[in-house]
Amino acid sequence: MAKPFTLTQLRYFAVVAELENMTAAAEVLKVTQPALSTAVAQLEASLATQLFVRQHTRGLRLTPSGKQFAQEIKSFLEHADSLYESARGMAAALSGELKVGVFAPLAPFRLPAILQTFEAKHPGVEVSIVEADLARLQEVLLDGQCDVALMYGLGLGRGFTYKVLERIPPHVLVHEGHPAAADGKRGISLRELEGEASVVLDLPHSREYYEQLYAMAGVVPNVRHRFSGYETVRSFVAKGHGYAVLNQRLRSDTTYSGGRVVALSLTDPFPPIEVMVVRPEGVQATRRVLAFEETCQLLYGSGEA
Prior knowledge:
The chain is α/β, with parallel strands linked by helices. The protein folds into three domains: 7-74, Arc Repressor Mutant, subunit A, CATH 1.10.10.10; 94-167 and 274-302, 3-Layer(aba) Sandwich (D-Maltodextrin-Binding Protein, domain 2), CATH 3.40.190.10; 170-271, Periplasmic binding protein-like II (D-Maltodextrin-Binding Protein, domain 2). The protein is built from ten helices and 13 strands. A five-stranded mixed beta sheet has the order 4-3-5-13-6. It has a four-stranded mixed beta sheet with strand order 8-12-7-11. Strands 1-2 form a two-stranded antiparallel ribbon. The N and C termini lie far apart (50 Å).
């Protein structure tokens, strides 16, 4: 038996669900607001489910059923687009929007190359970026604000599927005048730095990872500064404010402050951080998402990212 709703109603709902504003959605869809409101109301009636809560002061808000429905129809609409493209002989071409989340410390030196390659191969896809910490990325993935995210696996909860791109061991950064750098040491243990001031990357899940490393080494860190910016940590180390334990190594040793840092390998048997491409579990990946994952795997595998 045919279901009493249309593909147009589903597309209208998807835009309203994203914007949570009927007026803005009508402008995007280039339809009148009454026509849009009627289509959404008819869809709710067909489903016998309330998809939105109407609030006078805050506009529309998705109900729990509305959020779940919005997630599920993404793959359906993507499949409908694929059928249309296939019928017109354009199955190889991708189009539409792709929302990519990225862990802030990875964004400056990993994502540009990935995006450049992706857009060259799929120019019809409009990519938008959400830069955030690890905890926030999990939220936006589950809320449907992002389709896929490039991030660390630290603190990754249930409800996600992922592919590991790289495993990065921790290392120590010191300024170029530090005795360990002057001695030309290739490796160092955290115990050798005990008592010295440290500069900490203070982000959700990252901080717990670094605290775990100190605990494993039996060292109580002498924390002088905490920062949420990766380059801020490096700049303070370069000016002699303390050492730092980090994972991702930048190609340049010169920092924003003009000073230089020296990276030393850690001799402690610490666990690495896993770089992943992550998406919500139970939501069928669109062709755009799969193409982005493929690009990430390609560039990380070649070492060009």
